[in-house]
């Protein structure tokens, strides 16, 4: 009898098998990469992640999505996380570090990962470093989605999501083909409970007080690339993808804390820059 974790491949359509086989062949030549996306709510981390994931064959680990799934399934973890999430506060470091540690072991993370929404406190960043050190690997680059708070309310309150896939839409900036309906499955879209102007205030407060120090933590390691996240989604994607030559010279230079004047880094995390 097949074990509960195995899949009966005879039931998988040939086209799906071939597509997955081709994807794996393409991915076999890709180097390993470990990325962190940091930015305030609505800065576009979730919007850019699928593109980065596909291009570099990484798994996308979004702590917010994982926690929402746990809340929906009413697991012990979800029950503990719900109250903080509804108020726009952070859940405890121990809870999120536990789910990330487990998630990183998935086969889809073999080539590395995108951490979206984690780490969000310096404590989480330190625990992540310890976790990675045990595996003999480290973070290659931190993408800082820099944006002014004033732009975020419109983005957050206009967002609609397809819970099953995590696909995100916006009534003005990225409308679905049919209002309220997912383009791919035709299923209804929902609004997140914390996507209100009032809860956004607490989420931004948590970002400035608890998460901005994480950016400084990584600046000191010289691995932060700052993006102009207020640009259009296409332009932000281009920034992520564009030629990285300049960053090769900038990597490792002064941090914001150490008095380096505010500079916009060209994004750079190609192997040839390392
Ligand atoms: P989480 O789910 O991580 O939410 P968040 O960080 O607040 O981020 P968002 O998902 O709101 O924003 P995003 O940057 O992904 O924006 P998106 O691309 O969708 O966390 C939720 C909660 O979980 C937290 O408050 C906390 O309680 C808990 N939690 C999670 N991780 C935790 C951790 N590590 N520790 C403790 N607690 C944790 O874009 C937003 C909208 O704008 C979309 O509609 C999109 O279409 C649109 N848009 C995107 N880019 C652009 C653009 N360039 N121009 C115009 N519109 C755009």
From TrEMBL:
Entry coiled-coil feature ranges: none
Domain Adenylate kinase active site lid: 159-194
Bias (Basic and acidic residues): 235-246
Molecular-function annotations in GO: AMP kinase activity; ATP binding
Catalytic activity: AMP + ATP = 2 ADP
Function (record text): Catalyzes the reversible transfer of the terminal phosphate group between ATP and AMP. Plays an important role in cellular energy homeostasis and in adenine nucleotide metabolism.
NCBIfam families registered for this protein in UniProt: adk, PRK00279.1-2, PRK00279.1-3
Protein name: adenylate kinase
Organism for this UniProt entry: Gossypium arboreum
